């Protein structure tokens, strides 16, 4: 009989109530106040509420990141819960009818299409995401009945896995009716507040040009108490303290990657010609003025930030800062940000880069807090492809302090008198095609860096001996493990240190080893992606149970995130524990239970988890402490539902706003991304035996044709931008697991990249956990992967073993067979030759992590 850990009652548990409040508290800090002329906070008793997100509030994006929850407090309910009367229910009803009809038509089409193509509904959903129709037009009558001077207009946009967004109306831009509605409201209401219930940057230039929009609040997507959290901010109960983690451009085409991004040019080859100039690194260095800069966000109060005298202790740079709430009414929190401008040397350097940040405590009006921000000098080094090393080049490093990337003051200058090689590595990612990277005007850029620094009084000379120079030792040939022990070694022997993992692995047959390196695919008709676990329905998969009975090595259960734990909230089993079909899996893919079930013959189980704010929103809180608490909360739900590895956090870089999964990811900046991922990991891993899986490693910045897109990126950009966040997370928090991405990187699938997995993560960063593939990585399944005719082959199962990609998820029999054949015959299969030593190495990594989850 299957082990089932879910709850047998549908009653709300105390844990749900407590966790929802943690999530609400966090959500309050995730919102970014973009504009406010004093209209916020509101003090009204009645509101005219409009917009497609007012009732159909989005709690998180679509796909595997969509957390199934018991309830979703929408914005209309948020107003009602806060005691504010919503006067526009007639309009909201019309809007609901409109969208429900469109949604119902889509769901029907999706089901028929899945049947026609003999594929899963999820595959259809991923390839052809639902696009909501334009909004209902607001009439004078809707306005007349509202009896208030305050209107709130909620713009919602959804996006998700499997498809990129479009620079078109109703997506990146406003729909015509939305535009008309906002114009009208701006004319007739004294106060018009626009709320953005979105998962990624959209065009706001048009909105900003409308006179009469009094405030714009980036609510983002906040999990299941979104409506309540929003009202906390709108009414002033919570003072918004979020800051943008992306640069918001005037025009989409201002982003350097836009012209060629994904479907804008080719979905097969993505040329990273923007190099290291991603986000503010581009806008600041090329003199392009954004609409909202990186790190920006207003508050209901004002702060004064004063930096004290910078000092250097060994290799640590310390910046004392005093923050004072100089407002009279509202308490609030401020985010102090430290940037450095490195002088251009042999290598060119962007105008500035984020070095450290800290959020203050809640400061009452008049209250002051003194903080000291710290970071290590090595952090300012750049990667030289020529030297294959990180080098802190000689020159001036101007330190700037402020509350956004555009509002900083110079706090000091650190002079490095000679080049310091901080880490000697080796080049791992040669380009497979020529890449024409962009470069700023060097003379202008260097002048700009020095402008504000020219009156800087003090310069600190950096003691170059304070940095311990290191050289990476890379793994050599893997050696086969042998043992003389003949008694069957079990997990218990490992835990009691009677035997080593290597000895255990040496006793396993090639077949058993191969099984360890391939997950278990649910064969009984479960949905293809994200619902493959035998034991915890709705979890995305299990690792092998091949030696569960014989040696006590349990299967690990893996469940998605990042906006909470995605499980099936309600399922049914026969009395013998056999799972019955039906229930909610993900988004619109809902299979009804058999209506003729005899309830006396079945057991009902419940797994209600908490939806927390999406990754983008979490990062916008810039509050690592709170994010750690959120991780702690997820960890407690993992304990309750017996999930071992959480398939989150996700931290790919926001290179272009149209990437369909930007909502799951944190930022355009690797430092923020890495810090937030590390905090989340620390929170989850406080729970013994629970681990995170940082994903998608790496360069998963495009969703169209995600299984086959070849990203061509220079090694410097890779290391400084796209891998840096992963490095920070690994070095600071040692997540138990890493998930590789689907795409190719300079011609090699990341899943098959020995240099990425072994060379970078394990050898350079010291990663100790297990690496797994993303779902169906090495399976030729056109029904899942084939919307675009691929220009490259699928990744190889044997390549995963060669690379040290320990588990192929969820795996199939062919994966196992290929591995066994390749090892036994020594034959090259799909381009890779592998040995028993390779296979043992991977299996040992799996078993080591299983031991940590016990
Ligand atoms: C996604 C992963 C997810 C996995 C399991 C894949 O389609 O890319 O992020 O963890 O499915 O659901």
UniProtKB/TrEMBL annotation:
EC number per UniProt: 3.2.1.21
GO molecular function: beta-glucosidase activity
Pfam families: Fn3-like, Glyco_hydro_3, Glyco_hydro_3_C
GO BP annotations, alphabetical order: carbohydrate metabolic process
Hydrolase among keywords: yes
Keyword Aminoacyl-tRNA synthetase in record: no
Residue intervals of the Fibronectin type III-like domain: 334-405
Highest taxon listed in the record's lineage: Bacteria
Residue stretches spanning the membrane: none
Keywords, comma-separated and alphabetical: Glycosidase, Hydrolase
Family: Belongs to the glycosyl hydrolase 3 family.
Name of the protein in question: Thermostable beta-glucosidase B
Organism: Roseburia inulinivorans
Classification lineage: Bacteria, Bacillati, Bacillota, Clostridia, Lachnospirales
């Amino acid at each position: 009989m299957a082990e089932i850990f879910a709850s047998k009652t549908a009653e709300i548990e105390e844990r749900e109530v407590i966790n929802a409040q943690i999530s609400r508290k966090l959500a309050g800090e995730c919102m970014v106040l973009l504009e406010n002329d004093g209209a916020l906070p509101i003090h009204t008793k009645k509101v005219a509420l409009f917009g497609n997100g007012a009732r159909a509030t989005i709690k998180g994006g679509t796909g595997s990141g969509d957390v199934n929850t018991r309830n979703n407090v929408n914005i209309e309910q948020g107003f009602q819960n806060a005691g504010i009367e919503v006067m526009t229910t007639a309009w909201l009803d019309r809007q609901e009818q409109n969208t429900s009809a469109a949604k119902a038509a889509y769901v029907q089409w999706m089901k028929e299409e899945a049947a026609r193509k003999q594929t899963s509904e999820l595959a259809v959903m991923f390839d052809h995401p639902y696009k909501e129709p334009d909004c209902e037009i607001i009439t004078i009558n809707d306005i007349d009945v509202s009896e208030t001077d305050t209107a709130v207009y909620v713009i919602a946009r959804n996006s998700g896995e499997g498809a990129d967004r479009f620079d078109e109306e109703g997506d990146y831009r406003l729909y015509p009716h939305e535009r008309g509605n906002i114009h009208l409201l701006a004319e007739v209401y004294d106060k018009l507040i626009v709320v953005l219930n979105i998962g990624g940057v959209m065009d706001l230039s048009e909105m900003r040009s409308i006179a009469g929009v009094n405030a714009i609040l980036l609510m983002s997507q906040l999990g299941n108490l979104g409506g309540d959290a929003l009202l906390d901010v709108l009414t002033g109960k919570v003072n918004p303290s979020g800051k943008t983690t992306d640069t918001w451009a005037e025009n989409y085409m201002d982003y350097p990657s836009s012209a060629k991004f994904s479907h804008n040019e080719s979905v097969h080859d993505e040329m990273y010609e923007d190099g290291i100039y991603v986000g503010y690194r581009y806008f600041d260095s090329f003199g392009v003025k954004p609409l909202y800069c990186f790190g920006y966000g207003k508050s209901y109060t004002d702060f004064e930030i004063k930096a004290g005298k910078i000092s250097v202790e060994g290799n640590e740079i310390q910046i004392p800062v005093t923050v004072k709430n100089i407002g009279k009414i509202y308490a609030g929190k401020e985010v102090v940000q430290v940037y450095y401008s490195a002088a251009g040397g042999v290598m060119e350097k962007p105008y500035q880069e984020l070095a450290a940040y800290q959020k203050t405590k809640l400061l009452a009006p008049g209250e002051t807090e003194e903080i000291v921000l710290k970071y290590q000098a090595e952090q300012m080094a750049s990667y030289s492809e020529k030297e294959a090393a990180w080098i802190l080049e000689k020159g001036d490093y101007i330190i700037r302090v402020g509350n956004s990337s555009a509002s900083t003051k110079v706090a000091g200058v650190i002079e490095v008198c000679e080049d310091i090689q901080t880490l000697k590595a080796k080049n791992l990612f040669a380009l497979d095609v020529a890449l024409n990277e962009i470069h700023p005007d060097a003379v202008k850029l260097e002048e700009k860096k020095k402008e504000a620094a020219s009156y800087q009084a003090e310069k600190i000379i950096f003691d170059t001996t304070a940095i311990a120079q290191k050289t990476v030792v890379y793994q050599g040939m893997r050696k086969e493990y042998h043992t003389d022990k003949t008694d069957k070694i079990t997990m218990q022997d490992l835990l009691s240190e009677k035997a080593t993992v290597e000895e255990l692995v040496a006793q396993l047959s090639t077949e058993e080893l191969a099984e360890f390196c391939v997950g278990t695919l649910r064969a009984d008709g479960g949905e293809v992606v994200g619902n493959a676990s035998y034991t915890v329905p709705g979890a995305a998969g299990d690792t092998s149970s091949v030696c569960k009975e014989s040696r006590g090595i349990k299967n690990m259960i893996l469940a998605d995130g990042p906006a909470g734990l995605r499980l099936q909230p309600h399922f049914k089993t026969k009395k013998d524990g056999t799972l019955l079909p039906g229930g909610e899996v993900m988004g619109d893919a809902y299979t009804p239970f058999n209506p003729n079930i005899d309830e006396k013959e079945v057991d009902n189980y419940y797994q209600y988890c908490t939806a927390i704010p999406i990754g983008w929103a979490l990062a916008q809180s810039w509050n690592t402490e709170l994010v750690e608490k959120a991780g702690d909360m997820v960890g407690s739900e993992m304990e309750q539902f017996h999930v071992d590895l959480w398939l989150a956090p996700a931290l790919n870089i926001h290179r272009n706003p149209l990437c369909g999964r930007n909502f799951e990811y944190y930022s355009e900046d690797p430092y923020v991304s890495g810090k937030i991922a590390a905090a989340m990991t620390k929170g989850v891993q406080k729970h013994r035996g629970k681990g995170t899986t940082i994903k998608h490693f790496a360069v998963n910045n495009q969703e169209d044709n995600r299984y086959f897109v070849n990203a061509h990126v220079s090694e410097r950009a890779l290391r400084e931008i796209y891998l840096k966040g992963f490095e920070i997370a690994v070095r600071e928090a040692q997540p138990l697991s890493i998930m590789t991405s689907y795409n190719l990187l300079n011609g090699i699938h990341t899943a098959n990249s020995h240099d990425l997995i072994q060379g970078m993560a394990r050898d350079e960063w010291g990663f100790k956990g297990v690496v797994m593939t993303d779902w169906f990585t090495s399976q030729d399944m056109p029904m899942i992967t084939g919307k675009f005719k691929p220009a490259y082959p699928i990744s190889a199962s044997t390549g995963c073993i060669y690379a040290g990609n320990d588990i192929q998820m969820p795996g199939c029999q062919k994966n196992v067979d290929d591995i066994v054949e390749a090892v036994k015959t020594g034959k090259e299969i799909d381009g890779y030759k592998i040995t028993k030593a390779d296979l043992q190495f991977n299996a040992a990594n799996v078993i080591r992590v299983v031991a940590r989850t016990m």
